[in-house]
Amino acid sequence: MKQKASHKVCPTCGVDKPRGEYYKKGDTVSYRCKPCTLTDCKGRAPRYAGRYREYQNAWRRTAGKTPEREARRKLLKKLRYDVRKGVINARRREVWATDPACSARLHYRRKDVKDRTPPWVDKKALLAVYAACPKGFHVDHIVPLKGLIDGRPVSGLHVPWNLQYLTATENHKKHCRITSAQLAEAIKNRANSVEPQTGQYRAESPTN
Ligand SMILES: [Zn+2]
Questions:
Q1: What is the pLDDT of residues 132-145, one digit of tens each?
Q2: pTM of the complete model
Q3: Could you tell me the residue range of the domain that residue 30 belongs to?
Q4: Contact 117/158 with Cβ under 8 angstroms?
Q5: How far is ligand 1, taken at its centre, from the CA of residue 48, in Å?
Q6: Distance 52 CA to ligand 1 centre (A)
């Protein structure tokens, strides 16, 4: 029987090391010593990690996209947010306090709203629309104050009959852009639901 060598020279670092400095591989030992093997593995890892991530993402988009997994993903996302809420909001407040772009953006948004509020509009009726907004909904301008309709610039008015309630998701999806078909749909929905007293908000006609 061949006698096992008690030492081996590592071909990577060139140091003569005892058998215990190598990983066991059956009756023999690893090619490189332990630290050199680790360095080698870590050097290879990113190449394979990227490949596996692509495979995982493809699976998540197709076979892995079940209602149960989606619900679990949303729940975990919310839990992570709840844990980090304090940190996230503190960072937002810090940006708000230090970045002059934030207050500038608010200034111009307020100016845009003011510029599009006709002097004859009933301010109380406007405020009432905001006050009656259900929880979890946004007050949205049907014709955007400053947006695009079928890709062409449009400037809507800040008047009660141009307001509607949208969920946050719908509002963010709309993003100041609307098509004439969507506009017709929004006007129809509004006429069916909240609009019995629209007349009282309109500019008074000269006969009254
Ligand atoms: Zn080595």
A1: 888 888 899 989 99
A2: 0.52
A3: 16-48
A4: yes
A5: 23
A6: 29
